[in-house]
Every structure is written in C-alpha cells, then in structure tokens.
Amino acid sequence: MSTPPAPLPVFPPGFLWGASASAFQTEGAADSEGKGPSGWDAFAARGRIKDGSDAARGTGFHERYREDVALLAGLGADAFRFSVSWPRVVPGGSGPVNARGLDFYDRLVDELCAHGITCAPTLYHWDTPLPLDEAGGWLRRETALRFAEYVSVVAQRLADRVPMWMTVNEPAEVTLLGYALGEHAPGRQLLFDALPAAHHQLLAHGLAVQALRAAGAERVGLAVSHSPVWTAGNSDEDRFAAELYDTITNRLFADPLLTGAYPDENFAALMPGPVADDLTVIAQPLDFYGVNYYHPMLVGAPASDALDGFAGVGMPEELPFGLREIDTAERTDFGWPVVPDGLRELLGSLRDRYGDRLPPVVITENGCSYDGLDDRRRIAFLDSHLRSLHRAMGEGADVRGYFTWSLTDNIEWAEGASQRFGLVHIDYDTLRRTPKASYAWYRDVITAQKREAGA
C-alpha cells in the first residue's frame, strides 16, 4: 500500500473549498418537466458520444440532487459549482419561461443553503438550446442577446440566495472544439471562420454581467480554461506556432475580458459587429476570475512528428501549428500529462501579463480521470496540484478558492462515461453513488485546513 501524502501547507483563512459539476453531464431528465433539447442532446442523438452512453440519463442528478448535496456536506465543502441548464429554463432559447425548470434550481439552491453550502452556479456550461443552435448558435449575435434575457430570469429568481455567479464556462473549448474542429456540439468544422463564436460568447458574458448586477448579484465572474504553452523547438517557425496557439487559446479570451482589447488589430478585424463598442461591454469589472487548469500544451510548427490528435481530438493538417507529446512519467487515463507545476507557472504568467487588471482568481476546475474506487493516483494528482497552487500564492498569486472537477463521475462530453473524473463513483446501470478513496482524502484535507486556518 502506498504511503499517504504528507499534510498540505495551510491555505489562508476564508479560502473556499469546493467541487464542481455541470447540468448536461449529470442532470439527466432530458425530456422531463418541460425541458427543451440542447445542441448537445442533438449531437448525442447523432451518435457522437463515442462509447454510446445515455447522455439523456446522465447521473440522475435531477432526481438525486439531495443525495449529492449530502455528499458535498459530508466533504465539508464550502461551495458547489453547478450549472443551470438554459434549455430547462427557457426551452426555446427565447420566449416562454419554463416555471418547472426554474423550480428545480430553486429547490437545489434551498437544499444547498440548508446545508450551509455556498451556491456557485454557472449560467452557460455548453448546453445551447437547440432552436438557437440550429439557427447558427454562437455564430450569431442574437444568441448573446437571448442569453442575457435568460440570465436575467434566473438571477431574478435566485439572486437572493446565490452569492457567487459564473456567466460562461470555457468559451475557448466551445469555439475550438464545437465550431472550429467539430469534435463537440454543434459539430462544425470552420477552423478560423469559427472566431465569431468566440466574440459572441464574450459579448454574452458582458451582457450577462450587466443583467446579474441589475438583479443584485453579489460576486460575478466566469470560468476560463488556461494552459501554459511551451515551444517545441528552437526555430522561428516553432516560436511563431506556439505564440499563435497561445494567442488563440489563452489571450483571445483573457485580453478582451481583462484589458478591453483583442491581442492585436488583426484578430479584432476578424470579429463581427461593432467590435469597439462590444469590447466595452465584454470588459465589465469582475469580482473574481475563474481558471480551469488541467495541463500545459507543447506546440511547434506543423511537422511529421506532430500528434494526429490529443485526447481524442483530431487536428487538421492545414493548421499552422502542431501539438507534440509532453514527456511525463505520469499520465491520466485520458492520456493527459500530469504537470502540477504548470498551475504555478500559469498563475504567475497571468499575474505578470495582466497585473492589477487581473481580479482575485478562483480555481474553478482542476482534476483528472482515473478508474477505480481506490484511486490513489487521483489523490496524488490533487495533492501535487494543491501544493503547486500554494507555492504560486506564496509568489504573489491572489487565489481565493479551489473547486475540484468533479464531485461525481459524469458524462465526459463526447467521451461518454469512459472517463471518470469524480470523487464519487457512479454505477451507470443503477446510478448508485460510492465515495472513492479520493473523497475521503479531500474531506480530510478540508477538515484539516479549516482547523489549521482557525475557521
């Protein structure tokens, strides 16, 4: 038996400890209580879930949310990051509100509050209402306007009990995987013509911040995926490729949010609409900046040794960069490299790049896919990343909380049930929940941290 990790260094008093989930990946009840279909429901119906998992069933969270809230309480978690399903609340994307859909989130919020758990909903975690998706989705400005209307409806119902809001989750992944490469819903393969989807998600975020503030929301942010980008070689071509990849996946989203400008005028010229006016909306002041971190990316010029794909995502040959495999001793079951110090590097680069324009950071996702109930490798992963986070904070990173991905196993988008990210195991035949060794470890971490911090 492996030796348990040594106690973690102590995080500051008031540091927020949480876990995460999303609606499409967990809720199920895809056709119940007036919920409309999402673009991901249609994507799954086309057979695009690789292992054939029943995404319409999910983990049964819609029916079993009290059981999962009890698991959160058993962890001692301060907060739960869940998402609100847009098509459950506004089935058509615009128009009539589904009162029964809102009622579900009302019950969930009450249950969390009853256990003293902070509600931290994300208002868009990839499940675009199907009518909007079929009309062009995030390629159309209309989708951003309709999103703001939906956000206003949710905020007016829940803002009295929800102190922490996230507008959108990982707009880079929606743009790249959904609109550029076609590996995620809606399955478009537009390459660089997908850029309007990035702009309209950013605009939707800005409009949503305005709607949340108008409803009295206390703390508003979003969740943005970030990875350090390493250059694979020493040639000018390698450096150009890595810089372009860093711009597309990191700066294209962070720069407008934090500086009110795109990385350069060439990108701004590719965006639709009154870009200068939109940027003033996009760069609304934020109370926190959510960072989702999993691993760095090694990037160079297109070459014969470039990866054909990464974790199931194919890379077209015509792209002006190529991904390389990072040489690490440890990989997750998803094939992702385990690089804990990448989190420290990332936080330092964000601090250096944006300075006082960067709000306090919350790690809104960090986790790994490993099978088995005795998941010691997940414990080692989380332990090492928390140590890296603590080092980053000692070097000046202002980080206020950490949400692990995820509370339970879930439908991992196009991978289905094949990748298990949860602290709690889901039996997809019975939907039985079984806490893993990592659940007990994280519970003990939270208990020790609160005791040592004097909470």
UniProtKB/TrEMBL annotation:
UniProt KW Zinc-finger keyword: no
Signal sequence extent: none
Swiss-Prot/TrEMBL catalytic activity: Hydrolysis of terminal, non-reducing beta-D-glucosyl residues with release of beta-D-glucose
GO molecular function: beta-glucosidase activity
EC class name: hydrolase
Enzyme Commission number(s) of this protein: 3.2.1.21
Annotated keywords: Carbohydrate metabolism, Cellulose degradation, Glycosidase, Hydrolase, Polysaccharide degradation
Family: Belongs to the glycosyl hydrolase 1 family.
Protein name per its UniProtKB record: Beta-glucosidase
Source species: Streptomyces xantholiticus
